[in-house]
Design brief:
With 184 residues, this protein is an alpha+beta fold. The chain has helices at 16-26, 33-39, 88-103, 118-125, and strands at residues 6-10, 46-51, 54-64, 71-79, 108-114, 130-135, 147-153. Helices cover 23% and strands 28% of the residues.
Length: 184
């Protein structure tokens, strides 16, 4: 069976409406006009995913300099349900991790995932992301409203960047004081 061809393309004023429509279908939250205006400014940090020339997914990131760190925040990474499990999310995430590796100055990459989204949590864990925090009432108007913060740190060796994780240490190796089950 042929898996098809997955390619990433730039987000421009000409195709931004496709991104808006995709996000409306894929995510339970609504993104405002400022989100889309900002996406047009981030260049390689925002990409549409094409499967056999059809827009089926997108990834949108931004640089975050909070907590005295230089971090990459994955605002959205999603794929239409009918095109999941074809490696499209992997292509998008590998694009993001490659940017981090080539830049070399990011402390970590992180994102928020709704606590009941087991598929997404398992997907990110395959690439060395770990749950580092639970945010109660993170989402407005959706249930459950709580989110996990998943994070992949780059303070360790560069060998983790391609999805091989050697970060399986103790139960509570993160610095937040939050265990993997979200308890303080």
């Amino acid at each position: 069976m042929t898996r098809g061809r997955t390619e990433l393309g730039s987000i421009t004023p000409h195709n931004i409406k496709q991104l808006k429509r995709l996000n409306q279908v894929v995510f339970p939250v609504t993104y405002n006009d400022k989100f889309y205006k900002d996406v047009l400014e981030v260049g390689e940090l925002a990409k549409l995913a094409y499967f056999n020339d059809i827009v089926v997914g997108a990834v949108c990131c931004r640089v975050d300099t909070s907590e005295n760190q230089r971090r990459l925040y994955i605002m959205t990474l999603g794929c239409l349900a009918n095109y999941r499990r074809l490696g499209i999310g992997t292509v998008m995430l590998q694009h993001v991790l490659k940017i981090c590796a080539e830049d070399g100055r990011f402390d970590n990459v992180f994102l928020h995932v709704q606590i009941n989204n087991v598929g997404a949590i398992k997907f990110y864990e395959k690439f060395g992301f770990e749950i580092v925090e639970e945010k109660t009432n993170y989402y407005k108007r959706i249930e459950p409203a709580d989110a996990y913060v998943l994070q992949k740190s780059f303070r360790k060796s560069g060998s983790e960047i391609n999805g091989e994780s050697d970060s399986r240490k103790g139960e509570n190796s993160d610095k937040t004081g939050v265990s993997e089950d979200g308890q303080v």
